[in-house]
Amino acid sequence: MKTKDMSAHQLPAFTGNIRDERGRFRQGCSGNPKGKPRGSISLTARIKAELQKVPPGQRMSWEELLAKLIVKKAIEGDPRMIDFLWRHLGSEFGRALKETITE
């Protein structure tokens, strides 16, 4: 009796005709046919909205407080914060900051 050799690309029969013989979605078909619901807000947008809020008893937003903390830590010599500023604000800024702190 011959046994059927199941290759990694064969899928069970229940997948219907939305996938090709290699298991990829056929052109025009999707694994998420309904897609993202209208009006849904991304995680990034939610985080940005939260950072814009001013915490109780403060005059600055969370974003401003976080920026001040990052800069303060970099000035105090935290190498992770120096690297963070370097990567996000440009190498010239980071290089000047690193030289100032390490002198």
Describe the structure.
The protein has helices spanning 43-52, 62-75, 79-89, 91-102. The protein is mainly alpha-helical and 103 residues long. The chain has a domain at 55-103. α2 crosses α3 (79-89) and α3 runs antiparallel to α4. The radius of gyration is 26 Å and the shape is elongated. The N and C termini lie far apart (79 Å).
**H and E order:** HHHH
Strand content: under 5%
Shape: elongated
Multimerization state: single chain
Average pLDDT confidence is: 79
Q: Count the strands?
A: 0
Distance between the termini: 79 Å
Structural class given helices, strands, pairing? mainly alpha
Q: Measured on Cα atoms, how large is the radius of gyration?
A: 26 Å
Parts with pLDDT < 50 across at least 5 consecutive residues = none
Tally of helical runs:
4
Query: In percent, how helical is the residue content?
Result: 40-55%
Largest sheet: none
Helix and strand arrangement:
Blueprint: H1 43-52, H2 62-75, H3 79-89, H4 91-102
Give the structure's gist in a few sentences.
This protein has helices at 43-52, 62-75, 79-89, 91-102. The chain has 103 residues and is mostly helical. The protein starts with 42 loop residues before the first helix and ends with a helix.
